[in-house]
Design goal:
single chain, 2 domains
Length: 182
């Protein structure tokens, strides 16, 4: 019995192989990002991200060739990707209309801060924002601008805030209980 040995040549890694691997990774990342986008950015942005991901994936051209006898040229794929990215950038994160009767969204419905001094009051305001602000916009991110208002003999903190999905909200806190008390 003679042993037969088969000599295997190592497979060469080419620039095309690396490009395909990178396209798979980036395409999958876009498709996973689309799942998150549906809940935080909305339906339209989620669909745009899916289209970008599909344009990047090598599998898309394989399936188009197999079932539709066509494929996306490199330039058409680039146009789809660039247009999609521009649409994501230019479209605002359409905020949901705010109900001005909700506590804190107008000066008339300002939230009365139950604190005895400034440190407790500011901490309470930020905790309120973390717990209650931007609930339909991915959650509270940061305070962009805080200003002091004096209206009808009352002191108010007005806070313009950013939400995690890029939206903005304005909250009013009535701070008579602790204003000027250190």
């Amino acid at each position: 019995m003679t042993k037969r040995t088969v000599k295997m040549e190592p497979r060469k890694i080419t620039l095309g192989t690396i490009g395909t691997l990178i396209a798979w990774i980036i395409g999958i990342i876009f498709l996973l990002a689309a799942i998150a986008a549906f809940t935080t950015l909305g339906l339209l942005k989620g669909i745009i991200i899916i289209v970008i991901g599909l344009a990047i994936l090598p599998l898309t051209n394989t399936l188009l060739r197999k079932y539709l006898k066509t494929e996306l040229s490199t330039s058409l794929r680039a146009i789809i990707i660039i247009t999609g990215m521009m649409l994501l950038t230019f479209f605002p994160s359409w905020p949901q209309p705010l109900d001005q009767n909700v506590s804190g969204l107008s000066i008339e419905t300002a939230i009365v801060v139950p604190a005895d001094n400034e440190a407790e009051g500011v901490a309470w305001e930020y905790q309120y924002l973390r717990d209650n602000a931007c609930t339909d916009k991915g959650g509270f991110r940061d305070v962009d601008l805080q200003s002091l208002d004096n209206q009808n003999g009352h002191m108010f903190d007005r806070m313009s805030i950013s939400c995690k999905n890029g939206g903005k909200e304005m909250y009013y806190f009535q701070i008579d209980n602790f204003f000027g008390k250190i």
